Amino acid sequence: MSEQKKIRVATCSLAGCFGCHMSFLDIDERLLQLLEHIEFDRTPLTDIKHCGPCDVGIIEGGVCNSENVHVLKEFRKNCKVLVAIGACAVNGGIPAVRNNIDLWECFQEVYHYGIGLKNGQIPNDPELPLPFDQVHPIYEVVKVDYFLPGCPPPADAIWKFLTDLLAGKTPKLEYETLHYD
Amino acid sequence: MSDNTINIDGQTVPFLPGQTIMEAAMAAEVYIPHLCHNPEFTPHGSCKLCTVSVNGRSAAACTMPAAAGQQILNNTEELNANRRALVQMLFVEGNHFCPFCEKSGNCQLQALGYYLGMMDPHYNHFYPARAVDGSHPDVLLDLNRCIMCELCVRASRDVDGKNVFGLTGRGIHTHITVNSPSGRLGDTNLAVSDKAAEVCPVGAIIKKRHGFAVPIGERLYDHKTIREVQTEAHK
Ligand code: SF4
Ligand code: SF4
Ligand code: FES
Fold this sequence. Notes:
The complex is a heterodimer.
Chain A: E1 7-13, H1 19-25, H2 30-35, E2 38-40, E3 54-60, E4 63-65, H3 66-78, E5 79-85, H4 87-91, H5 103-113, E6 131-136, E7 146-148, H6 155-166
Parallel strand pairs in A: 1-2, 1-3, 3-5, 5-7
Antiparallel strand pairs in A: 4-6
Chain B: E1 5-8, E2 11-14, H1 21-27, E3 51-54, E4 57-60, E5 71-73, H2 77-93, H3 108-115, E6 132-133, E7 139-142, H4 151-159, E8 165-168, E9 175-178, E10 205-207, H5 226-233
Parallel strand pairs in B: 1-5
Antiparallel strand pairs in B: 1-2, 3-4, 3-5, 6-7, 7-10, 8-9
The complex binds iron/sulfur cluster (2 copies) and FE2/S2 (inorganic) cluster.
């Protein structure tokens, strides 16, 4: 790990719940250690809107709408190494449970018939990204270099994964830190 | 070398006449990954996870009879890579969302994924439309997670003597059916104490009201690999 030039890292959450990002923050004070070697580009922690040239891009969440695809492609274009983190990025996860439900029926249930709803409206502002009929993992859209499954992956798994990666090694998880749940 | 031995990855393994390679290996505590095989039932030979190389040719260890002098390769990088691909295909052919599956941690498909180092399902997902049948008071049938191993069919027919389950369709359309006029599990004589209700290696047949009785983190494969668990079980 070079002291002069820091490794530039971008992260984002697509169709995810930010749980993977929370688990990332769970590495606690090791974050300070990490920050000696990395700097952040676009992440939920910075106010950078677009991903610029980076060494590592970390994507949480699958792809559920048109904006997700644009962001994902921007990451792929700019990041030397792209990492899928969490169950949703790896196989669609919980959002993909809607894949066999008609989108219109799904919206009706969420905005009209859901418990406690009255006079609901289905949002249709042109600014809103177009939802897809199905949610898919990111590797079905762009090439992904590494996968870190888990819902979310435990902080120790994220730490091991990142430190391996920053040391230029192929990340290797211990048996007990590799989880699909 | 005595007549009744085979060689698995350089290890001499004795066998009794009539034993399959899988049975001989299990008796010698040699682990051959398997999924549709369960030593309590007649071999089915459908998942091909147990594929080994016998004298240079591929064969399913659970159905192939052991024969004197067989030179068998089992735990090789190439065979395990093939097994990983099979597990990945099983994942994308169904709808496997481990984070909310009650079988997670006790599931053999998942445990094989861990054992074989599967980091992603690799193939494009089918997301097939499959039914969930909650009509039975004590047992849930969720075909999203079914891997068509036919263990429930074998258990119900051969142990319970009830024939509650059947397999129908061909190729990608193959699926488990319930043998009742309505096709619903609630209209069969399946009892929660039946072998068929507990034999499913994945989360397709689940006993109701047992959810999270054993917490995540304390389940069968949470700290031990499927290799360790199954080798100990067959001792
Ligand atoms: S059956 Fe197994 S692999 Fe499928 S969702 Fe449940 S735990 Fe995961
Ligand atoms: S329901 Fe379970 S036991 Fe029956 S075929 Fe499917 S996976 Fe096998
Ligand atoms: S275990 Fe032999 S084919 Fe499934």
